[in-house]
Amino acid sequence: MDNFLPFVLLIGFIAIQRIVELFIAKNNEIWMKRQGAVEFGNKHYKYMVFMHLLFFVTLCSEKILLNRGLSPIWPIFLAIFILAQFIRGWAISSLGKNWNTKILVLKHGLVIRKGPYRFLKHPNYFVVTTELLVLPLLFNAFYTAMLFTILNFIILSIRIPQEEKALRMLTEYDEVFQDCHRFIPRIVK
């Protein structure tokens, strides 16, 4: 149990972070809907939320039941996690009031092309994908890492096309992102 405190502290940090993000998202949702934003993808949203909640339950369960300890390369996993948090904050601040956990699009709204969006179409999904892999591996929770990498792939294979379709319908998304990849950063133009 010598690594239980770091686990509790990290999970506590993430829980507080997610609660703050939900408040930000709710305020942004109210603002966007007042501006006339249209919501897309609400059928899959509850499954995405459930998957994220289940991730933490599964991670905590695997940690408590199997308690394999920290990974021998935990500093690398922790550094990746910390870097992902900076990218998350950068993405959220770049989108400003447009950032949300739901797919909300303003008709003829400006497509954000600053911050990490200069390099990736979906930096926040890149961060989430990274976290769902790195967090369990940090604590040798291999079952959680495998299961939620697969579940996240399934959710994102539904969500990203719906989000891109919504953006194509209501904005100049294709013109702005014609030379940008979904997950592979564009280094040079």
From TrEMBL:
<dbReference type="GO" id="GO:0004671">
    <property type="term" value="F:protein C-terminal S-isoprenylcysteine carboxyl O-methyltransferase activity"/>
</dbReference>
<feature type="transmembrane region" description="Helical">
    <location>
        <begin position="133"/>
        <end position="158"/>
    </location>
</feature>
<keyword id="KW-0812">Transmembrane</keyword>
<protein>
    <submittedName>
        <fullName>Isoprenylcysteine carboxylmethyltransferase family protein</fullName>
    </submittedName>
</protein>
<dbReference type="InterPro" id="IPR052527">
    <property type="entry name" value="Metal_cation-efflux_comp"/>
</dbReference>
<feature type="transmembrane region" description="Helical">
    <location>
        <begin position="7"/>
        <end position="25"/>
    </location>
</feature>
<dbReference type="InterPro" id="IPR007269">
    <property type="entry name" value="ICMT_MeTrfase"/>
</dbReference>
<dbReference type="Pfam" id="PF04140">
    <property type="entry name" value="ICMT"/>
</dbReference>
<keyword id="KW-0472">Membrane</keyword>
<keyword id="KW-1133">Transmembrane helix</keyword>
<dbReference type="GO" id="GO:0016020">
    <property type="term" value="C:membrane"/>
</dbReference>
<feature type="transmembrane region" description="Helical">
    <location>
        <begin position="73"/>
        <end position="92"/>
    </location>
</feature>
